[in-house]
Write a structure and sequence with these properties.
The structure holds two protein chains of two kinds. Chain A is an all-alpha fold. Chain A has one domain. Chain A contains three helices and no strands. Chain A is elongated and about 55 Å long. The model of chain A has no long low-confidence stretch (mean pLDDT about 90). Chain B has one domain: Clp, N-terminal domain (Double Clp-N motif, Orthogonal Bundle), CATH 1.10.1780.10. Chain B is built from eight helices and no strands. In chain B, α1 crosses α2, α2 crosses α5 and α2 runs antiparallel to α6. The two termini of chain B are about 20 Å apart. The chains are: A mainly alpha, B mainly alpha. The interface between A and B is medium-sized, with 23 and 28 residues.
Chain lengths: ~70, ~170
């Protein structure tokens, strides 16, 4: 397979890897925010999503680690 | 198909999909893709996928590290060093498998390979084997799995032959 920069498959592979990296960075950042006492409202505002969307995306993982936001308590 | 074989197929499906999801989450991916499904197939107790890929010196550890390397190389190609970006704290814990979901979660790439594997087994009137997953994986032309197999130097026709040998 041609792996040169002009090959769309190369560009798409970078997009996939970037999404993966962005997802990981988002999880790390949200974990850090929760550790610092942020609320879901604050996390959602910072991410530019609704509180429900932020909760849906991150709450299960945080619960699994016994972590809660201020407004979960 | 007799009921006992149908039950065995259901067990194989359960192992394949449950393990693909666990592997994906362990690799910090939210949904299993075709590459995670192939990794899962290597662990299926029938041993067929493991033997077929073993002919190319590919085992689960080598496949998994090739997947990680593929993503790192894709980022490096656009000037991003994944090791130094954002993950200073080292590796995060694996993502939990969401207990709320009784349905298997998977990406379209995994669904395509899984469905193709099932269709191959049905059309050949065979019990579902992990070798069917290898056969279906060999047909994938684009995406992470295809790039990883290329990077590992796995030639598709030879991989199909190895999988078919397991099914004969």
């Amino acid at each position: 397979m041609d792996r040169g920069p002009d090959n769309p498959a190369t560009a798409i592979a970078a997009v996939i890897a970037l999404r993966r990296l962005a997802d990981r960075m988002e999880r790390d950042a949200v974990d850090a925010a929760v550790a610092q006492g942020w609320t879901w409202r604050q996390i959602a505002q910072a991410l530019g999503v609704t509180r429900q969307a932020a909760h849906k995306r991150h709450a299960a993982r945080l619960r699994d680690r016994g972590r809660m936001t201020e407004d979960d308590r | 198909m007799n009921p006992l074989n149908a039950l065995r197929d259901m067990r194989t499906i359960k192992v394949l999909l449950t393990e693909a999801e666990r592997i994906a989450r362990d690799m910090e991916d939210e949904e299993p893709g075709a590459e995670h499904l192939l990794l899962s197939a290597i662990g299926v107790p029938d041993g067929a996928a493991a033997r077929a890929l073993g002919r190319f010196d590919v085992d689960a550890a080598r496949l998994r590290s090739a997947i990680e390397r593929e993503h790192a190389d894709a980022l490096a190609a656009i000037g991003i060093d994944a090791v130094t970006v954002g993950r200073q704290g080292g590796r995060a814990p694996a993502l939990p498998v969401e207990p709320r979901s009784r349905l298997y979660r998977s990406s379209p790439s995994a669904q395509e390979v899984f469905q193709a594997a099932g269709a191959m087994a049905r059309s050949a009137r065979q019990r579902l084997s992990s070798a069917h997953v290898v056969l279906a994986a060999a047909d994938v032309e684009l995406g992470t799995l295809a790039r990883v197999l290329d990077a590992l130097g796995v030639e598709r026709a030879a991989l199909r032959d190895a999988a078919r040998d397991e099914l004969s």
